[in-house]
Amino acid sequence: MESPLIDLKDISYSYEQTKALDHISLTVREGDFLAIIGPNGSGKSTLLKIMLGLLKPTSGTVELFGVDSKQFKQREWIGYVSQKSNSFNSGFPATVEEVVIGGLAKKAGLFKRIPRDAKKLANDALTSVGMAAFAKRRISELSGGQQQRVFIARALVARPKVLILDEPTVGIDHENVQAFYNMLAHLNHDHDITMILVTHDMGSVSDRITHVACLNQTIHFHGFKEKFETMSDEQLEAWHGHSVRKIHHNGGDSQHA
What we know:
Elements: E1 6-15, E2 18-28, E3 33-37, H1 44-51, E4 59-64, E5 67-68, E6 78-81, H2 84-87, H3 96-101, H4 105-108, H5 118-128, H6 144-156, E7 162-166, H7 174-190, E8 194-198, H8 202-205, E9 211-216, E10 218-224, H9 225-228, H10 233-240, E11 245-247, E12 254-256
């Protein structure tokens, strides 16, 4: 079996005296579409930062594509999309194409030129998320859902093998959420991009994911979606701390457990 793309082994992390993650072991393999769920304050953002190499764990090891994270150089292989509404100035005077081309800076590296075919790469990335027709539009003119697609294109332009998304539907109206998740499934299935998604919206995304990780300082469950669906209400509440939204297949809707 090939090495996992991301392999966390017995990871712990503390902010001063407060433990955020406690002995986390988690693997992500090529082709996975992993949903990470957990209550507020459960360590989800900390876990993502460790995957991205932005934080060094207090203990444990991180391997990326079979290489120790400290020696891993191909950071462009891992794309990241944050919660747009918390990080973007909607009045920013740039075109969609310019925003996406900016994503090549990570691949080019410091003091290196953006590649000559940057516009083609940007167009390919925008096409993959259904936004090529908006290339010359100002980013500020787009809806929340359209902007988030552009940010995904920005992450895709460097041709990552893994795409990490932190609550990507924040700021997207309910009517467009299903189309957004369909687009993510298309990238996963048709473009062979491994997906890691932090979400509270398990009901809407459940038909697209392959794996689930339940996080609350430690991993309470990590496995195939089908096994997660067999967990009892009592098991779910034990790790989450209160009732949670359990997957319920009925046209993508969900219900409280």
